[in-house]
Design a protein that fits this description.
The protein has about 270 residues and is an alpha/beta fold. It contains 10 helices and 8 strands. Helices cover about 45% and strands about 15% of the residues.
């Protein structure tokens, strides 16, 4: 697994495939670059795929203080440049989708296309139940060990009996995290806000929403699609927050169809 040092931070990334356009996969909170197995295995035959461990996650340097989503996006740019995959088809899930938004806004030249999965432009607690969930998550990350947080998160991500193996792997992966790092990353999520800048995103964009996602409401994905010029919205039925893992075949197909349209537009522009 290659690594680089950017602004004093050691950043690891996973890499698959040797030929074709670049694909950048950006994971969510508490996850890491390993959590794209169904995408990496399929796309490495025709693309150069990279998946960084965001700062504070996986094997990258832990966080010891505040960080912003914009700073995480700058880290990712350094990884993309080191791996020489720009411009890349960018896919971001949850926190990764926030990083992807900042990437498209701050570094549009590295983004070939944009797929935003179960994410939002700003964390909004619209109802009492929403406020309670945000409060509970904040408190949990503050006081409970990662083993407890991991089990709770895994049950929310993969609640169905047939998802037992996904749930087990999620617990295993999540509890490896340093709690302070995840706390600071959570604070970055709470401070994220691109709502007033979405109209400046120039990359062709697909917004994906898992129909059964209990973490990010459908209205937030609608908002992204409505405010990013030309963006399309795709709902994946019988899928929760971790759509690339719990509905990989349908997710991959939706992304591949979108990429075909992106490349078709590029060829038209060149004609």
């Amino acid at each position: 697994m290659p690594d680089i040092t950017h602004n004093g931070w050691r950043l690891f990334y996973h890499q698959w495939g040797d030929e074709g356009p670049g694909v950048l996969l950006i994971h969510g909170l508490g996850s890491c670059g390993e959590d794209w197995p169904f995408q990496a295995d399929r796309w490495q035959r025709h693309y150069r795929v990279i998946a960084p461990d965001l700062r504070g996650h996986g094997r990258s340097a832990p966080l010891r203080g505040p960080v912003t989503v914009a700073e995480l996006a700058d880290d990712v740019v350094a990884v993309v440049q080191a791996a020489e995959v720009a411009p890349a088809h960018v896919i971001g899930l949850s926190l990764g989708g926030m990083v992807a938004q900042e990437l498209a806004l701050r570094h549009p030249g590295v983004v070939r296309s944009l797929v935003l999965v179960n994410t939002f432009c700003r964390l909004r607690a619209r109802t009492w139940a929403d406020r309670r969930r945000v409060w509970a998550r904040t408190l949990g990350l503050r006081v409970f060990p990662m083993s407890v947080v991991a089990r709770s998160t895994a049950r929310r991500l993969f609640p169905k009996p047939e998802q037992a193996e996904l749930r087990r792997l999620a617990v295993e992966r999540l509890q490896r995290n340093d709690r302070r790092s995840i706390w600071w990353a959570w604070q970055a999520i709470r401070g994220h806000d691109t709502c007033e800048r979405l109209a400046r995103i120039s990359a062709l964009t697909l917004v994906v929403h898992g129909e059964e996602d209990t973490t990010v409401p459908y209205v937030e994905c609608q908002r992204l699609a409505a405010h990013i010029p030309g963006a399309r919205l795709k709902t994946i039925a019988n899928s929760g927050h971790a759509t690339p893992l719990d509905a990989p075949n349908r997710f991959n197909l939706a992304v591949e169809e979108f990429w075909e349209q992106v490349e078709g537009n590029a060829h038209t522009d060149l004609a």
